[in-house]
Design brief:
Blueprint lengths: L1 E6 L3 E7 L1 E2 L2 E2 L5 E6 L6 H15 L8 E6 L5 H12 L4 E2 L20 H14 L3 E6 L2 E7 L5 E8 L1 H11 L19 H27 L5 E6 L2 H4 L8 E2 L3 H14 L1
Parallel strand pairs: 1-6, 6-7, 8-11, 11-12
Antiparallel strand pairs: 1-2, 2-5, 3-4, 8-9, 9-10
Helix pairs in contact: 1-2, 3-7
């Protein structure tokens, strides 16, 4: 089994991939989500993951490798130590240099987040190119892959959660509101007005960036989405053709496979 870990700024997503006759069984066997805590130690993360294994009836000895996509560099050491101590395995950390069969047309490839690497690899493996991946995380990322499998770059925008927190933090009277689709665009209270601005403004942001990206790419890109808020946002954006919840984990698996087999 492969233990795949996607460390984001807000959440850590964990997946288990089972192999049969040296080949992965389609889709993760189990997935879990933890809150990202930069202060937690390798022991705290290790015992949390062991608890998840316990309830899923998975033995640590079944884990043959660990692959990690991490965008929080301060947690590199904790997860490396965790892998060695609790699983007797040295984790494989994904970087832009790990990208298999994808040419990177990015000015500074080392700046590409490991999650974007995994998303691009999985998107091209499953859907070919041209393809655009939207990842609705703490930040919303757009990744563009050409028909030939070239990583072209993309765009990065604040996620709606960051926007909501910023409104509350930098204004005296505005509260933190939950991101949800309002019944009407004309808000009749401060909270409903904020929801309108955040939700519909975010929809507009997504559509405008997608429109510009598609114009700059050859062909007609297939657009897919992943991430926590994809289910809320995508129904409002007809340009997105499919939600793939486990895309990043699948990308981690593919990158690990290509680099270790």
């Amino acid at each position: 089994m492969l233990l795949a870990i996607d460390i984001g700024n807000t959440n850590i997503t964990i997946g288990i991939f089972k192999y049969a006759s040296g080949r992965p069984v389609k889709g993760p066997l189990e997935t879990w989500r933890l809150s990202t805590n930069r202060a937690m130690t390798e022991d705290e993360y290790g015992t949390k993951i062991l608890d998840l294994f316990h309830y899923a009836l998975i033995e640590t000895a079944e884990i043959k490798a660990i692959a990690v996509a991490n965008v929080v560099p301060s947690l590199d050491a904790a997860f490396e130590k965790m892998g060695r101590k609790y699983f007797k395995k040295t984790p494989f950390f994904i970087t832009s240099k790990s990208m298999p069969k994808i040419d990177i047309l990015y000015e500074k490839p080392e700046e590409i987040g490991a999650d974007r690497v995994a998303n691009a690899v999985a998107a091209y493996a499953f859907y070919g190119g041209p393809v655009i991946v939207l990842d609705f995380g703490t930040a919303t990322t757009f990744d563009c892959i050409s028909r030939k499998g070239e990583y072209l770059g993309g765009a990065i925008a604040p996620g709606p959660g960051i926007s909501a927190e910023s409104l509350a933090r930098y204004t005296a009277k505005l509260p933190v509101v939950e991101i949800a689709k309002p019944d009407k665009a004309v808000g009749k209270s401060t909270e409903s007005a904020m929801r309108s601005g955040l939700f519909f403004g975010y929809i507009g942001l997504i559509k405008e960036i997608l429109s510009r990206l598609k114009k700059e790419m050859n062909g007609t890109p297939y657009v897919i989405a992943t991430g926590g808020l994809a289910g809320l946002i995508v129904p409002e954006v007809k340009e997105v053709k499919r939600i793939v919840p486990e895309l990043t984990l699948e990308g981690i698996r593919i990158v690990w496979d290509k680099n270790n087999n």
